[in-house]
Specification:
Layout (H helix, E strand, L loop, with lengths): L11 H22 L5 H8 L6 H14 L1 H11 L1 H17 L7 H12 L5 H12 L2 H15 L1 H14 L5 H21 L14 H12 L2 H31 L4 H25 L7 H23 L3 H28 L6 H62 L9
Helix pairs in contact: 1-8, 1-9, 1-10, 3-6, 4-5, 4-16, 5-6, 5-7, 5-10, 7-8, 7-16, 8-13, 8-15, 12-15, 12-16, 13-15, 14-15, 14-16, 15-16
Main location: membrane
Pfam family, one: MFS_1
Keywords: Membrane, Transmembrane, Transmembrane helix, Transport
Length: 416
């Protein structure tokens, strides 16, 4: 899609494509968050013990890790539109197929197949968003979409728990499939084709290997891509460890635990909304530099409160809320900078970003787990501060370089 064809104004008509994409993203996310509360019914029906319960999430995430390396290059070869439509249709059909399973092994295999839906969101869908919209508009759209996607981890478990009290567990998958089907119809109607399908893109193992190794040898791309997991890691670790921090260590009730999560998500939503507001008013990248202040300052405040203050849960939540505000101001811009850091086809670039992010999240959460086991709440807070400082050290020069290039368009890498 040429620069002249890129969308630069947002209205209902130009937002229908991202709305349909984020509806699919929502369906895929609640495919995990809504399904987990039903697992006790699943294992009971299939006559197996409760040790199978966590394997449902593992199988789903395994499916999401299997195909990004292929879905991105496929969309370079055949176009974003047909590949994404296939991915949405696949996910819809695999959710409906739960009505056919009759044992736990078939169910777990189906969870892997359903997890394939994760492979099409970033590697294909978000790449198309970046290509369909002008640069600042793409950042605004990404920030707005992030708020809708945040509803899934909040509403999914509650909706799943409520549904299993009213209907059989398979009904949840029917509702997820319906949501995905509506997204499919919206994408069929409004998704543009943003790349020209090219037979020159080879999908042989050798060609893919050379493409990814060339990408990973590009130091600028790797540094830009690693900024994303470094930015998000404290919040990801908070999601993983906050039940232990708040309930086990600080003895909050389950209700109090849930209520203290609200300021953190509010901070993230507020940061995304601020980014959408300033994206076309500020030079692209300035919001990241501004966001570094609440990000680092909030985590330093959290560490000081944990070490020297009472009411540790207040400082934990306040620090994480400020950190989340900084993340919201930064994420959409950093995603754009990483995607445009390499001149290679954007399908393989977005797939490479997705795989680096997943690897960074996996390693980071394990590191935070060990930090918590070694130092408890203090270990978590100290590691959060170190991660934030590492993010500033890595991201600041990348952002300043990207801002300088956009101030002088002759310096921009090919393909922006």
């Amino acid at each position: 899609m040429s620069q002249q064809e890129k969308i630069s104004r947002l209205n209902l008509a130009t937002l229908l494509f991202p709305l349909a994409l984020v509806l699919f993203e929502f369906a895929v996310y609640i495919g995990n968050d809504m399904a987990q509360p039903a697992m006790l019914q699943v294992v009971q029906e299939f006559g197996v013990d409760a040790s199978w319960v966590p394997l449902s999430m593992t199988a789903y995430l395994l499916g999401g890790a299997l195909l990004p390396w292929l879905s991105g290059p496929l969309s370079d070869r055949y176009g974003r539109r047909p590949v994404l439509l296939f991915g949405v249709a696949w996910f819809t059909a695999s959710c409906l197929a739960t009505y056919l399973v009759s044992d736990i092994h078939s169910y777990m295999l189906l969870r892997v197949l359903q997890g394939f839906g994760l492979c099409f969101i970033n590697a294909v869908g978000y790449a198309a968003i970046q290509e369909a919209y002008a640069e600042n508009t793409a950042v605004r759209v990404t920030a707005l979409m992030a708020n809708v996607a945040l509803i899934a981890p909040l509403a999914g478990p509650l909706a799943g728990a409520a549904l299993i009290t009213l209907a059989p567990w398979r009904t949840g998958f029917l509702l997820i499939a319906l949501c995905s089907l509506l997204a499919l119809l919206g994408l069929w109607w409004k998704m543009p084709e943003t790349v020209q399908p090219s037979a020159a893109v080879k999908l042989t193992p050798r060609a893919l290997w050379h493409g990814y190794t060339r990408l990973l040898r590009d130091g600028r791309f790797v540094r830009s891509a690693l900024c994303i997991p470094l930015l998000a890691m404290p919040l990801m670790a908070w999601i993983a460890l906050s039940p232990l921090l708040l309930v086990e260590d600080l003895h909050l009730s389950a209700l109090e635990y849930g209520l203290w999560q609200l300021p953190v998500f509010a901070g993230l939503i507020g940061g995304n909304l601020l980014l959408a507001l300033v994206a076309e008013r500020w030079p692209l990248g300035r919001s990241v530099l501004v966001g570094m202040w609440p990000l680092v300052g909030g985590l330093l405040l959290m560490l000081a409160g944990v070490l020297y203050g009472g009411q540790q849960h207040v400082f934990l939540v306040l620090g994480m809320s400020l950190m989340a505000l900084g993340e919201g101001l930064s994420f959409g811009v950093l995603y754009r900078f990483a995607l445009t850091a390499s001149p290679q086809a954007k399908g393989i670039v977005s797939a490479g970003m997705s795989m680096l992010s997943m690897a960074g999240y996996a390693l980071g959460i394990e590191l935070f787990r060990w930090g918590y086991l070694a130092g408890g709440i203090t270990g978590f807070a100290l590691l959060s501060v170190c991660t934030a400082l590492g993010f500033v050290w890595l991201a600041r020069p990348q952002v300043k370089r990207a801002m300088a290039e956009r101030a002088d368009p002759d310096l921009l890498p090919q393909g922006i």
